[in-house]
Write a structure and sequence with these properties.
The protein is mostly helical. The chain contains four helices and no strands. The longest helix has 70 residues. It starts with a helix and ends with a helix.
């Protein structure tokens, strides 16, 4: 009977140590990861909002360039330079939008080769590239929410498990076998 009591006290001590490790080491780590995911999601959402603002600038400059090309005489050099400026600016803005989308969705800055590829594309190809990123955005948002929800659920489950370990361990060490 004495060996049984000592073994239960040993198991109780092990359970208390497990609860301590979960609460003092694992839980702060998981909570910091959850905050990191939340920060990344918020940062990515802000970048997506900035990309939408840039999109309106692209539309505005494209429309100004198209309107000027319709209204002005094709031989007017000042109008041609202005139209060229608006179209070049719209292309630069759409490359900036692609950079924002890439950074928001992949959580990294695009490489030099990627930037060179985008700068060599024409306006229509760039619009298609933006469309492909925008399709990925929908699945990214769902995946980001699922990841934070799963991590939050894991935190609650570990809290429950550590509470059970702590309670059973405390019972086995102190209360259960002193009678």
């Amino acid at each position: 009977m004495e060996l049984f009591k000592k073994r239960k006290k040993l198991y109780g001590t092990i359970l208390l140590i497990i609860a301590f490790v979960i609460l003092s080491i694992i839980m702060p780590f998981l909570q910091s990861k959850l905050k990191e995911f939340d920060y990344k999601n918020e940062h990515s959402a802000l970048l997506l909002i900035q990309a939408e603002i840039v999109s309106t600038n692209v539309k505005m400059e494209t429309n100004f360039g198209n309107l000027l090309s319709i209204v002005t005489d094709p031989r007017d050099t000042l109008a041609n330079k202005t139209i060229e400026y608006y179209r070049k600016s719209a292309k630069e803005q759409i490359v900036g939008r692609l950079i924002l989308l890439f950074t928001a969705l992949y959580d990294e800055v695009p490489s030099k080769q990627q930037l060179d590829k985008w700068n060599s594309m024409n306006f229509d190809e760039l619009q298609k590239e933006v469309g492909s990123f925008w399709q990925y955005r929908e699945t990214w948002n769902i995946a980001a929410k699922e990841r934070t929800e799963i991590l939050g659920l894991l935190i609650y489950l570990l809290y429950g498990f550590s509470l059970i370990c702590y309670s059973v361990g405390l019972y086995w060490v102190n209360i259960g076998f002193d009678r």
